[in-house]
TrEMBL record:
Domain Endonuclease/exonuclease/phosphatase, first and last residues per copy: 52-265
Superkingdom, taxonomy of origin: Bacteria
UniProt KW keywords: Hydrolase
InterPro entries membership: Endo/exonu/phosph_ase_sf, Endo/exonuclease/phosphatase, GPI-anchor_lipid_remodeler
Pfam annotation, one family: Exo_endo_phos
Descriptive protein name: Metal-dependent hydrolase
Gene3D superfamilies assigned to the protein according to its UniProt record, in alphabetical order: Endonuclease/exonuclease/phosphatase
GO cellular component: membrane
Gene Ontology terms: biological process: GPI anchor biosynthetic process
Molecular function GO terms recorded: hydrolase activity
Length: 278
């Protein structure tokens, strides 16, 4: 009996070791949050608009539990007025919202109607906003090239900064697909009326080189900050970029608990101001 017990404990050791290390990393991250983490009270100042981008991984956390209210807690913690989401819908048709509409409604968030049949977005991309300072004027879809089914979404708002177009995307996993998709997005937006524009989303770009800057020279990207994987970020996969007429005056990654476990990504945010175009 004792021999069987020893064998059983030996088999459990890797699992126990994993959870011990997970707790240690969590304590380290919590200390960092207390030392310099952004809280909701540190949100947008007058004359600024805070925008965030967040891949919510269908509201399934690293604990493998689907907790949409936890996702909402992280979103609200960013202090953002306008949020672009990726993986906002479940994978299988009819792709119902992973973050249900009623939860957002209860919290006062408004949803750009990009989906249908209960979806929150299109190809998992969604746009939500809160507050009387933003008024939705138009919205639409942009199909993206590539073997994977991918798409981008856009919405036009009237804001305290003036008219603002936002484009949200979740780019492909291969370098070739990403480059084609960025070029396609740039071509589509170039055919539209010239307006201050923000691109944001999960760009899946691991390179430390300024690849995206070269692919879309008309944009200025906020400094890359590691947002993936959430527990120990190493890659700046989630990015925010602005066109002429806008300036990023502050930006960062939201790390406050439970962001470290609510998704495999951390949210990124940027404070925007309007600037005169030359």
């Amino acid at each position: 009996m004792f021999r069987s017990l020893r064998i059983g404990l030996a088999r459990l050791w890797p699992v126990r070791w994993f959870w011990v290390m997970l707790r240690r990393v969590s304590h380290i991250r919590l200390a960092a949050d207390k030392a310099g983490g952004m809280t909701q009270e540190q949100s947008t100042q007058p004359g600024r608009l805070r925008l965030a981008s967040y891949n919510i991984q269908k509201s399934v956390g690293l604990d493998l539990r689907r907790r949409p209210r936890r996702t909402l807690q992280v979103i609200e913690g960013t202090g953002a007025d306008l949020v672009l989401l990726q993986e906002a819908d479940k994978r299988l048709p009819p792709r119902p919202a992973a973050l249900p509409h009623f939860i957002l409604d209860e919290a006062g968030w408004q949803i750009v109607d990009l989906g249908g049949a209960g979806s929150l977005g299109w190809h998992g991309n969604a746009v939500i906003w809160r507050g009387a300072a933003l008024t939705l004027q138009d919205h639409g879809h942009i199909p993206l090239p590539g073997l994977e089914p991918r798409g981008a979404v856009w919405a036009l708002f009237q804001t305290g900064l003036g008219p603002l177009r936002v484009v949200g995307a979740h780019l492909g996993l291969t370098t070739k697909a990403r480059h084609e998709q960025v070029h396609h997005l740039a071509e589509v937006i170039a055919r539209e009326p010239e307006l201050p524009t923000v691109w944001a989303g999960d760009f899946n770009e691991w390179s430390r080189q300024p690849v995206l800057d070269h692919l879309a020279p008309q944009l200025r990207f906020a400094p890359p900050r590691a947002s993936f994987p959430a527990l120990r970020p190493m890659g700046a996969l989630d990015r925010i970029a602005v066109s002429a007429g806008l300036e990023v005056v502050d930006s960062g990654v939201y790390r406050t608990r439970p962001a470290h476990i609510a998704s495999d990504h951390l949210p990124v945010w940027a404070d925007l101001v309007a600037v005169e175009q030359p």
